[in-house]
Design goal:
The structure holds two protein chains of two kinds.
Chain A (H helix, E strand, L loop, with lengths): L1 H11 L1 H15 L9 H19 L8 H28 L1 H4 L7 H28 L12 H24 L2 H15 L7 H6 L4 H4 L2 H15 L5 H32 L1
Chain B lengths: L4 E14 L7 H9 L6 E14 L3 E6 L5 H9 L6 E6 L3 E4 L12 H11 L4 H15 L14 H12 L6 E5 L7 H16 L3 E5 L3 H7 L2 E6 L2 E7 H12 L1
Parallel strand pairs in B: 3-7, 3-8, 5-6, 6-7
Antiparallel strand pairs in B: 1-2, 1-4, 8-9
The chains are: A mainly alpha, B alpha/beta.
Chain lengths: 261, 246
């Protein structure tokens, strides 16, 4: 009974969800000369810079190093911008929330899905760079979808938690952006994993679900080998738990939002 | 909820916490929490409000400024969830409040019709079908392709009104909205609302103009400091209101 009520309400507003996602993507690059092309250019240029610095300057001569960097960086970028978008979604739509009834989670979901769509578009760059650098397609390549799905759920869960917290404490935004930087350096985006493990600090990867998704993604697309089962299980469990915690927290606090925004 | 009732409001109370200073950063919160210094002043904007609006009835809500009229509308339209009691509504609600909340400044008028329509819960098919009617009624002509940040406030209000009234609602919520745009459009919008009245729509109308309420409504209630001071047929309530305000 309760569930059908929520489902009905969601169906009523699914067109709004679509419109909000479209608005995010449309307005992101409106009035820029290259428009949506920036979704492709930005990661490509960043990859070049990072390859130059962490590849050439450090004397690394792995020809597929750009793919390594690009894959890590794309996944991180989705996680960071998705959670940040979700975090701000309630406070930045406050004028609307105060005036019209709309299920509030729609704003968070729309912010994260629109980031996911941009992310999926930017994967074209990865395919292109992979083709140029002759990365082989293997039977394991399609498995890359699994870490992506896990990452999506994880981002959604974190987004819901952060959006709720940010309504009550505006500091969360600043804390989170510092935290994202920490996660970036702890996710082996621009350096090889074994260097860190060699120093005895490998534990940092074992507590980082984002790294686990990146590692499994790389196994699938770059190394052509099966995923690490431990990483898969841990990241999946963390993602589901974050989603449950996020939904419950958001659901419990949402009626109070209007008094604080 | 009985069959012939469109809006059912039962023992509704709305409490706000007026903290003397707003604590919205973590440091202050932790310090005050430890010092047990988190003080709130409770304030009931609405208390023990109960009434029913039958289908087809037009209820006027009278009251002075700060008596809780707008809060009541927000509670009925679902924007605010009451602190206690419950509200049930039956059918499609068209809240003609805050017209154009959710417009995007960067979007053109046409794009905003779809966006605001979606905010009001319309489907894409419905909007595709009605878009010409909306543009026509708004009288914006070729301006519909211009980003609305270049609109005047009257133009925005006209567009908002046109989108909000394109549905055939079961319940219409009005907050002294009958004054949109210039004189020509005001007449047009009044005619539109009158034609909605003729279809037997249930109306919740808020105003401090007694004359307007008497003209439009058949039932009325008076709110006084968040409490229900009177309810009944509009003539009877109007007399009480006159005595109160003199």
């Amino acid at each position: 009974m309760e569930t059908t009520k929520y489902l009905k309400n969601f169906l009523r507003y699914k067109y709004l969800l679509y419109e909000l996602i479209k608005k995010h993507i449309k307005l992101q690059y409106r009035r820029s000369y290259l428009g949506i092309l920036w979704t492709l250019l930005e990661p490509l240029l960043t990859m070049m810079v990072l390859t130059l610095v962490f590849g050439t300057f450090f004397g690394r001569d792995d020809p597929q190093f750009p793919v390594y960097i690009l894959s890590g960086r794309l996944l991180y970028q989705f996680f960071a911008s998705g959670t940040k978008g979700g975090l701000k979604s309630i406070s930045s739509n406050s004028s609307m929330i105060k005036k019209v009834y709309v299920p509030k989670y729609i704003y968070v979901v729309a912010a994260i899905i629109s980031n996911f769509v941009t992310f999926l578009i930017s994967l074209v760059v990865l395919v292109g760079v992979g083709a140029v650098l002759k990365v082989k397609i293997t039977p394991y390549t399609p498995q890359c979808l699994i870490p992506l799905a896990i990452l999506f759920v994880f981002t959604m869960g974190c987004g819901l938690i952060l959006a709720t917290l940010n309504v009550f404490f505006r500091d969360v935004e600043y804390i989170w952006s510092v935290f994202c930087m920490l996660i970036m350096y702890a996710s082996a985006i621009m350096y090889p994993v074994d260097r860190v493990i060699a120093t005895g600090n490998g534990w940092i990867f074992d507590i980082n679900p984002l790294f686990m998704c990146i590692a499994n993604f790389r196994d699938a697309i770059l190394y052509g080998k099966p995923m690490d089962i431990n990483y898969l299980l841990i990241s999946a469990v963390v993602a589901v738990v974050s989603m449950i915690v996020g939904s419950l927290l958001f659901y419990k606090e949402q009626d109070k939002f209007i008094l604080y925004i | 909820m009985k069959k012939n009732v469109a809006v059912h409001v039962e023992n509704v109370g709305m409490r706000f916490n007026l903290s003397q200073e707003r604590v919205d950063n973590l440091k202050e919160y932790v310090i005050k929490f430890i010092k047990r210094d988190l003080k709130y002043n409770e304030f009931w904007a609405l208390k023990d409000i109960s009434f029913d609006i039958k289908k087809g009835e037009r209820l006027g809500v009278l009251g002075l400024n700060g008596s809780g009229k707008s809060t009541l509308l927000k509670v009925v339209s679902g924007v605010l969830k009451p602190s206690c009691g419950n509200v049930e509504t039956r059918g499609v609600i068209a809240p003609l409040l805050e017209l154009g909340a959710g417009f995007s400044r960067e979007y053109t008028g046409r794009e905003n019709i779809y966006l605001y329509g979606a905010v009001l819960g319309y489907s894409k098919e419905f909007l595709d079908e009605k878009i010409d009617e909306i543009i026509d009624f708004s009288g914006l002509g070729e301006f519909i392709e211009v980003p609305i940040k270049n609109y005047s406030s009257g133009m925005k209000a006209r567009l908002g009104f046109s989108i909000a009234t394109v549905v055939e609602p079961d319940i219409l919520i009005l907050d002294e909205v009958l004054s949109v745009g210039d004189k020509t459009f005001r007449k047009k919008s009044e005619r539109k609302i009158m034609s909605m009245f003729d279809t037997g729509v249930t109306v919740l109308f808020v105003s401090h103009s007694l004359e307007q309420v008497q003209r439009l409504c058949d039932k009325a209630i008076i709110l006084d400091s968040g409490r229900l001071a009177a309810r009944g047929p509009v003539e009877k309530v109007a007399k009480i209101y006159k005595n109160m305000t003199q």
